[in-house]
Design a protein that fits this description.
This protein has a seven-stranded mixed beta sheet. It has a single domain (about 1-185), classed as Rossmann fold (3-Layer(aba) Sandwich), CATH 3.40.50.170. The mean pLDDT is about 95. About 40% of the residues lie in helices and about 20% in strands. With about 190 residues, the protein is α/β, with parallel strands linked by helices. The two termini are about 15 Å apart. The protein is globular. It has six helices and seven strands; from the N terminus they run βαβαβαβαβαββα. The chain has helices at about 10-20, 40-50, 65-75, 95-100, 120-125, 160-185; strands at about 1-5, 30-35, 55, 80-85, 105-110, 130-140, 150-155. Helix 1 (about 10-20) packs parallel to helix 6 (about 160-185). It binds 5-O-phosphono-beta-D-ribofuranosylamine (GRF). 5-O-phosphono-beta-D-ribofuranosylamine binds near residues 7, 11, 13, 108 and 109.
Length: about 190
């Protein structure tokens, strides 16, 4: 499948997806990296990887509809079939939802529906839960709602600091996201 990865930050998941494509573990082609934060580290990773980068500044558009219309045109030009969100810190709006329907996927660092939204790892640690994890799901208009595709649990040990839990979660994500995308693209769920 031809995919676009959307990211706003460091892009370690972008990197894991790219590496899995290179090694043949993920049967897909990254056509485009879309970033709403020009200069974010993920753009450097993408350029090094030889992936086409589309950076944009949302505030320079009159509305979400306008920038999503621009994004949709670029996605079409590049024949993108799936949108893969990897730390894209923005809700997807009606233009992309209408055009990509069930072909937009997100990864979230908790066992949804627990701890949606920002700082899911911090929320889990503050709540004192003993198990948290990672969820991969289809995107709908809500914040981290939408049908769940797959989940992995991560245990929180007594005394674990937030950064230690975040680290464990990232390690799982880097295996779990490419693997789940491959299954999905091959028609298995
Ligand atoms: C990941 O933890 C992902 O679950 C969340 O945002 C984070 C992105 O990290 N949606 P990175 O930019 O891929 O390192």
């Amino acid at each position: 499948k031809k995919i676009a990865v959307f990211a706003s930050g460091s892009g370690s998941n972008f990197q894991a997806i790219h590496d899995a494509v290179q090694s043949g573990k993920l049967r897909a082609e990254i056509k485009l990296l879309v970033c709403d934060k020009p200069g974010a580290f993920v753009t450097e990773r993408a350029r090094k990887a030889g992936v086409l980068v589309l950076e944009f500044i949302p505030k320079q558009f009159a509305s979400k509809e306008e920038f999503e219309t621009m994004l949709h045109e670029e996605l079409q030009k590049n024949e993108v079939e799936y949108i893969v969100l990897a730390g894209y810190m923005r809700l997807i709006g009606s233009v992309l939802l209408e055009n990509y329907g069930k072909r937009i996927i997100n990864i979230h660092p908790s066992l949804l529906p627990a701890f949606p939204g920002m700082d899911a790892v911090g929320q889990a640690v503050a709540a004192g839960v003993k198990v948290t994890g990672v969820t991969i799901h289809f995107v709908d208009e809500g914040m981290d709602t939408g049908p769940i595709i797959a989940q992995r649990a991560v245990e929180i040990q007594e005394g674990d600091r937030e950064d230690e839990v975040a680290q464990k979660i990232h390690e799982i994500e880097h295996e779990f996201y490419p693997e789940t995308l491959d299954r999905l693209f091959e028609g298995k769920r």
